[in-house]
UniProtKB/TrEMBL annotation:
<dbReference type="GO" id="GO:0098535">
    <property type="term" value="P:de novo centriole assembly involved in multi-ciliated epithelial cell differentiation"/>
</dbReference>
<protein>
    <submittedName>
        <fullName>DEUP1 protein</fullName>
    </submittedName>
</protein>
<feature type="coiled-coil region">
    <location>
        <begin position="99"/>
        <end position="126"/>
    </location>
</feature>
<dbReference type="GO" id="GO:0007099">
    <property type="term" value="P:centriole replication"/>
</dbReference>
<dbReference type="GO" id="GO:0005737">
    <property type="term" value="C:cytoplasm"/>
</dbReference>
<dbReference type="GO" id="GO:0098536">
    <property type="term" value="C:deuterosome"/>
</dbReference>
<keyword id="KW-0175">Coiled coil</keyword>
<keyword id="KW-0963">Cytoplasm</keyword>
<dbReference type="GO" id="GO:0005814">
    <property type="term" value="C:centriole"/>
</dbReference>
Length: 169
């Protein structure tokens, strides 16, 4: 995108330079036209030859035609220059809008990521708490199991003694 802007700017500068040259040529042609008119007036006074007058008049008409063509070309170049400027302006405006949209999107995504990090941290804390609770419950159940096994063993011993005593009686 930067390259197209650069190309457009170069084209704009090139056309601007061309436009200035055309203006300079118009001024030079106008100066020449004035000189030709002065020359024509002097020739008419000094020389009464019709052919010289006709020739100067033709040259003057040719110069006038050239001036008109240059003026038309200058107008066309100015229109092209304005079109390019407008296009560059629109592209720059679009580029700025796109940058703002991307900044907003990045900001939103950063906020969403921050919220997810908070959620993950909360879940990790809860998981750690549940793990501790499960370990404590496991320890309690292991102690209860050990106690029950001891009681079972004692019950069997007492039962065995009881059976032995019944046999002896």
């Amino acid at each position: 995108m930067e390259a197209s802007f650069s190309e457009m700017r170069n084209e704009l500068q090139s056309r601007d330079a061309l436009w200035r040259r055309i203006q300079m040529e118009c001024k030079q042609l106008h100066t020449e036209l004035l000189k030709i008119r002065e020359y024509k007036d002097m020739q008419e006074i000094k020389i009464k030859h019709q052919s010289s007058c006709v020739q100067l008049t033709e040259q003057l008409e040719n110069k006038n035609t050239e001036l008109l063509l240059l003026a038309q070309s200058q107008e066309h170049q100015q229109e092209e220059l304005n079109k390019i400027r407008n296009h560059v302006y629109r592209e720059e405006h679009y580029h700025r809008s796109e940058q703002e949209r991307m900044k907003t999107e990045i900001s939103d995504l950063t906020e969403e990521l921050h919220q997810k990090e908070i959620t993950i941290a909360t879940i990790m804390e809860k998981a750690s708490l549940l793990e501790r609770q499960l370990k404590m419950e496991l320890e309690i159940k292991e102690k209860l199991l050990a106690t029950q096994q001891l009681l079972d063993f004692q019950y069997k011993v007492i039962k065995s003694e009881n059976t032995h005593l019944k046999e002896m009686v």
